[in-house]
Design goal:
The complex is a heterodimer of chains A (225) and B (481). Chain A is an alpha/beta fold. Chain A contains eight helices and twelve strands. Chain B has ten helices and twelve strands. The chains are: A alpha/beta (225), B alpha+beta (481).
Chain lengths: 225, 481
């Protein structure tokens, strides 16, 4: 992916740029809001990573201007620790996702992947499939092979989110935000217990495990190789 | 320019720094020039001026009315006298009139004038020189009295009437009485005016000094506070006047500032204390890894453990910052109406799995349709913290209940468990930052969960009410309507 990173802090910018380049993305860095806005409008990007606090023109203003100019490139906001309410402001300005600094690199990679994919799969799907697991979004039913799977509404949402991001790493925080709408870090193994329950529900006889734990990152649902 | 300076030095051109300088340097004495500069004294001067004007106006009105009254009296007396003379001498011609007027004129008391002239202007009788025969009421100034004649009182007021054979009769009275009265009135008014001004100034001075003293007390207290004595408060006299109200508001403001500063101080020392342990542990771990790690694998392990340590420290920082922001009321703006029942039900569903995994039971008793104006992101965190607190501190087999009902005072939410509970004397302490019960010291956690919950509750105008659930802990929140 071709990514424009707007970040004035050299160290963070270097860390993010280097890491994402190692993941195979193409990175450019803008050090202030005006430069970032100029380059975001001048070229075609797959993703913009925007720090909220930018010199000259702050990140929220940059994104608001872009959206007003009908430039719909996905935006991932970066913000400093403890910013209560910042998330809402950022999303209202037209941001697509939000990440609090300091973050685990795996978290950033997962979110970048999710946002990059968003563009290509905008078509409304009615059936999601991973190996022999099938989810009918209209009928709200799930089958593993021929076996129907009974799920609670929240479990359905959890599985749907995983399946929509099939093959990608989905982090714990992403699940908390998108499935439970929790914008904080619970002190208990909330996600883990729901995942393990979901696993046991979709586990068929002798069927291979579909939901994989990615150590230090999160979960990934994919067909066994 | 000096006259326009406010007692507190609050001239509008003053920036805050200038004001602070003034408070710091202060004004020591209440000398006369300062008195003249006070607002209340300037007010007094203004009132004294207004009083003078109104007293003068009153004087003018009284003078005008009394003059008119006395003139009317004179006119009536003169008219009656004329009528009497004319009726008495009816039909006896000019001669008859002369006989009647002559003795009257001779015996006339001072200030009473009679005159009878024939048509040639010859004086037939009377105690005044000939005049041009003017009919009706008119005034005449007796000659020879010099300058005094100018005084209104000395002028003779009278009436002239035509009489038989082309004669002319005039009867007049001098306004001695009128003059006397006007003089008396004026004199007393001068005295009254002087007294009024004196009283106004004296009263104003006393009042200014009183006000000045109270303002001075307030600014002295604020100087003490600027100097570092944060515990000082402005004395309230109990008179319930505007100064008491001002003092009460200022005191409330000072309380708020002090509690914020207190909080700040506590937070800094708490951070210092509570982060030293994990940071030194992290340092030891890194040092150990530096010395001992022989393979890449062990090095990675050490690094992973270090990252986990750093994450825990960052968690603590995050929670602290969140508490600070919530306590500073920065989020109340994000309030919206939300379905509390639905939110709590979702919380129960989310945590039921967690509780069951630990062999505990989480039940919900939530009334439907509880709507509340609150923060959509912070309220789940509040209840999540309370539920997790119960889950983490209760043993296997415990029962945890989340109940929400509409009560008279608002929405009442209870999180109750039958776990080990909290000793009664520590119920307040557990809400403080970093406070952890002795038995939970070894479990992971920031010691900030309940403080954060309490801060969010405070933002929603409620508080965590901890009580004994016999056995266990019950935390109750009453969200006011």
């Amino acid at each position: 992916m071709k990514i424009l990173l707007m970040e004035d802090e050299r160290e963070t910018a270097g860390y993010v740029a280097q890491g994402l380049q190692e993941e195979g993305h193409l990175l450019s860095v803008a050090e202030d809001g005006r430069d970032g806005l100029f380059r975001a409008t001048g070229e075609d990007w797959d993703l913009l990573i925007v720090d909220r606090m930018l010199p000259v023109l702050d990140g929220v203003a940059v994104v608001r201007t872009l959206r007003a100019g009908n430039i719909m490139t996905p935006v991932l906001f970066l913000t400093t620790l403890g910013g209560v309410g910042d998330r809402v402001v950022g999303l209202n300005a037209g941001g697509d996702d939000y990440l609090v600094k300091p973050f685990a690199f795996a978290e950033l990679v997962a979110r970048v992947t999710a946002l990059g994919r968003r563009r290509t799969t905008m078509a409304a799907e009615t059936v999601l499939r991973v190996a022999d697991l099938e989810m009918d979004l209209l009928g709200r039913t799930v089958r593993r092979g021929k076996q129907p799977v009974e799920l609670q509404p929240r479990e359905f949402r959890l599985l749907e989110y995983l399946m929509r991001h099939a093959g990608e790493v989905v982090t714990r925080t992403m699940l908390l935000e998108n499935v439970w709408d929790f914008h904080f870090d619970p002190r208990t193994n909330l996600v883990e217990s729901h995942i393990s329950r979901l696993r046991s529900k979709i586990a068929g006889q002798d069927a291979p495990e579909l939901i994989n734990t990615v150590r230090g990152a999160g979960y990934c649902i994919r067909a066994p190789v | 320019m000096l006259l326009f300076r406010h007692p507190l030095g609050l001239r509008h051109r003053f920036g805050p720094r200038r004001l602070l300088d003034l408070i710091k340097t202060g004004h020591a004495s209440l000398g006369m020039p300062r008195l003249l500069r006070t607002t209340s004294f300037r007010m007094t001067l203004l009132y004294a001026g207004l009083f003078t004007v109104s007293v003068l106006l009153l004087l003018a009105v009284i003078l005008w009315f009394s003059t008119a009254y006395i003139a009317e009296q004179i006119d009536r007396t003169v008219f009656n006298e004329i009528v009497e003379i004319v009726t008495e001498t009816e039909g006896r011609g000019l001669q008859g009139l002369r006989d009647a007027v002559s003795p009257l004129a001779e015996k006339a008391p001072p200030g009473v004038y009679y005159l009878l002239q024939d048509n040639a202007g010859t004086v037939l009788a009377g105690n005044m020189p000939r005049v041009k025969p003017v009919l009706g009421v008119w005034t005449w100034a007796p000659p020879g009295t010099g300058k005094r004649i100018e005084r209104a009182g000395r002028i003779v007021r009278g009436r002239g009437v035509p009489v038989a054979e082309g004669g002319y009769l005039f009867v007049g009275l001098d306004g001695f009485e009128l003059g006397e009265m006007q003089e008396t009135i004026t004199r007393s008014f001068v005295v009254i005016l002087a007294a009024t001004i004196m009283l106004a100034l004296a009263g104003g001075a006393v009042m200014s000094l009183g006000l000045q003293r109270r303002v001075e007390a307030i600014s002295r207290t604020s100087r003490d506070i600027v100097a570092g004595d944060l515990g000082r408060r402005i004395a309230i006299r109990g008179t319930d006047d505007e100064f008491d109200h001002l003092a009460a508001s200022l005191n409330a403001m000072l309380d708020r500032i002090e509690s914020l500063m207190q909080g700040l101080r506590e937070v800094s020392s708490d951070i210092a204390h509570d982060l030293r342990t994990p940071l030194s542990r992290l340092r030891q771990r890194l040092e150990l890894a530096r010395r001992r790690a022989l393979s890449v694998e062990t090095l990675h392990e050490a690094l992973d453990a270090s990252i986990a340590d750093v994450d825990a420290i960052l968690d603590t920082f995050g929670a602290l910052l969140r508490i600070a922001q919530i306590e500073a009321h920065t989020k109340a703006a994000g309030f919206a109406e939300l379905d509390m029942s639905e939110m709590l039900q979702a919380m129960v569903e989310a945590y039921q799995t967690v509780a069951e995994e630990r062999g505990q039971m989480l039940a919900g008793d939530i009334e439907a349709g509880l709507w509340l104006v609150g923060d959509r992101e912070l309220l789940p965190q509040l209840f999540s913290n309370l539920i997790e607190n119960a889950i983490r501190h209760c043993p296997s087999g415990a029962r945890i209940e989340l109940a929400a009902h509409l009560r008279a005072g608002g929405i009442e939410v209870d999180v109750a468990d039958d776990g080990p509970g909290i000793p009664a004397d520590l119920t307040e302490k557990v809400l403080q930052r970093f406070f952890r019960l002795e038995r939970s010291r070894t479990t992971p956690g920031t010691g900030l969960g309940l403080s954060l919950a309490a801060a969010i509750a405070g933002l929603h105008r409620t508080r965590l009410d901890l009580s004994d659930n016999r056995p266990g802990l019950r935390i109750r929140l009453l969200f006011p309507r």
